Amino acid sequence: MAVFDDIFHEVCARYAEAIASAFKELLENKHLYQSVKVNRDIMPSESTLKLLEKPSVARLEKAILLTFHEPWTARINIRHTELLTRMTGETHTLENEVIFYLPSIKTFCPTCQRLEPHNPRIEFISGLKISREKNITILNLEPGVSYAATEQAFTFGYQCQGCSDPPVIFLVYRSENNITLVGRNPMEAVEVPKYIPEKTKRFYSQAIVARRTNYTLAGNFLLRTFIEQTVFGEVNNPEQYGKSTDLLLDAYMATLHQSVRSDSPSLRVVYDYLSDDMHLAKGSEEVFEKAFMDINAHFELKDIYKRLKPTTKSAAAR
Length: 318
Known about the structure:
Blueprint: H1 2-29, E1 35-37, H2 46-49, H3 54-67, E2 72-75, H4 78-88, E3 98-101, E4 105-109, E5 114-120, E6 126-130, E7 151-160, E8 168-175, E9 178-185, H5 201-212, H6 216-234, H7 245-254, H8 258-263, H9 267-279, H10 285-317
Parallel strand pairs: 2-3
Antiparallel strand pairs: 1-9, 4-5, 5-7, 6-7, 7-8, 8-9
Helix pairs in contact: 1-3, 5-6, 6-7, 6-9, 6-10, 9-10
């Protein structure tokens, strides 16, 4: 019996680690409405199973399958669990729930304006089991016995290690071994390259967020808006061109270094194919990816020549 319990608790501990790993992947690398599956490949090795009698192996397999459908409970660390046990008088064990420890993550901090390590905060952790009127038969361990799909909703608060500003709040939905990011506050932001103009970088950032959440048509519109607002801000007396974006783009192109005009993608061309996509309401992913690459290539080369220009002047003066 002791051998069985040791093996079972070791397997449950590995399952808890797999859950924590899946949450780290979700919160660090996924975006709204994207999902991660928890790895369930946690069965003991053949050599370990040989320590058990055949009936015990079958019992272990059943116990593991049942564990997959137990509710999950998030904790920060072992002290968090011990504190709750002392406060409530309840013993939290792996027999009736799977306790996993939230990992630290690296995500974008809106205050620091860059990727920073974030730690979970104990006061912003909660989990809710969702009850359904109808059970879904997903597993038959015994004839005539059905088990309902496990659904839960979690909220987590993560605070930046650098600035300790109010935490980023995540809302995660669980269905069996699948977890989905369904909410976030503040809204996701992205780290913007330094060569993107400061005054209009919010449109660039919002376009990426729209694309990541599968609103590609909105993303294409925001890239087009980024081009419009950028050239408007970089041309002298832009009001003289009225509502003609073509004239405004011509005036902008005339301000560029000859090598930038010849060697980088033309914003006029990018603007035109983004406009075609928007007017036809296509929301093409290929159009977004091409526009995104062309915009970055244009402004990166423009920034290079901008930084080289003072050096050229100094050399000429000498």
